[in-house]
Model the fold of this input.
Amino acid sequence: MGKENNITISNPNEMNIAERVKAPTPKFFKTLRTIGLGLAALGGGILAAPVAVPAALVTIAGYVTLAGGVMTAVSQTAVDTNSKVSGNGTS
Done:
């Protein structure tokens, strides 16, 4: 509820998207974000493969890429309101 290093931790329901992204993220969502980035990279790698791949695999890779991107975006906007902001603005 205080202001430290240009990051205001307030009621999560009243934060805009920029404040949410800058706020500390809970450990579970950091792990989920990493998994989402991996899925997006895996799907993107299959989609960009220089060899011919079956159409079903390309379709699945598209869905995996989309799911990874959504998972990453949602996880990044989760806010840990119980933690303190460290001295350098990250947690």
Summary: The radius of gyration is 17 Å. The mean pLDDT is 82. The CA atoms of residues 5 and 88 lie 7 Å apart.
